[in-house]
Amino acid sequence: MHASTLFTSIVTAAFFTLAKAHGEVVKIEVAGQTFNAPLINAGGDTGPFNVPSNNSPVTDVTSDNMFCGAVGNKATSTPSIDLSKGNTISFYWGSGYSAGTTWPHNTGPMFLYMAKCDGADCSSMTPSNTNFIKVEQQGFVNGQWAQAALKAGQPATFTIPSDLASGKYLVRHEVINLANTDENFPACSQFDITGGSNDYSSAKTAKFPGAYSATDAGLVVAGSAVYSIKSDAAYVFPGPDPINPTDGSSSGSGSSVSPSGSVSIGSSASNSSVAIHPTSILAVSAAIPIPTPSAVSSSPIATMNSSSTAAGSSSPSPSPSPSSPSSPSPSPSSLPTHAIQHGHHVTHPT
What we know:
By secondary structure, this protein is an alpha+beta fold. The protein contains 7 helices and 17 strands. Helices cover 18% and strands 25% of the residues.
């Protein structure tokens, strides 16, 4: 064999060996739908995938490639998914250069990050203007890294909160290989999600690059030291904490107190409310007349009761005997109008 031909064969074999040693997301299943990624450098319609220019890892955590990898072709569409039809999302990994290949690594964590897009699509999202929330992180399952499932041809599956606010999202899935050195494999896709109303606005966010440091405990452990770690409790995940149900806000009905002291009562679904200020309550109270003692004493009922009391003081009425019928109560027609409306008994205000 000619020397140049032999050299070319060696280089080609080395390239494909290297390519096989890494990988890229080749398929996504979410909400009952399946999306297949085109091969690297194939061009054409890429669907929801940001297709990389190669399948090599990002080894410098300060590189802009930490955002979505070395993107060769951006997504050409933003498919709609309805979380009510399923809120798990599964990522299948392969070499990215040929079909039927699997992920070659099994050591290190996996993540799901998401960021709501500002425009009609996610094409304007950049490392400087994008704030991701960490939806989920996966370390160990039954004593081994969850990443080992990828090597067996299974997907990395995460759960998107069903109450996540509807809108277009940039989805950043990441696998970190810690077998020898820190190797980061971020992969981005985009979807128009129909969900709930929780924007998780109080959750900690992450920018890429920026969220990780080369000195993070969960990254410097790469190599021989990582094999002594056997549980999530013994591993320090890089990046912010994942979101939890108490983060952010969701619309609903209720009451709130404004800085001015007024109370708003209403439903955000209709975006309507009624504001009642404390001074308004006082004004209503002031508009209701409260009778004074003198006014009460001059009323027909008070006069009637006073006369009865005076008569009783000079000649007390004997108690009725069991055989004697009680004196009949006055009929409504014989009572003053005020007594008919409010009863016989009057309590004087103190």
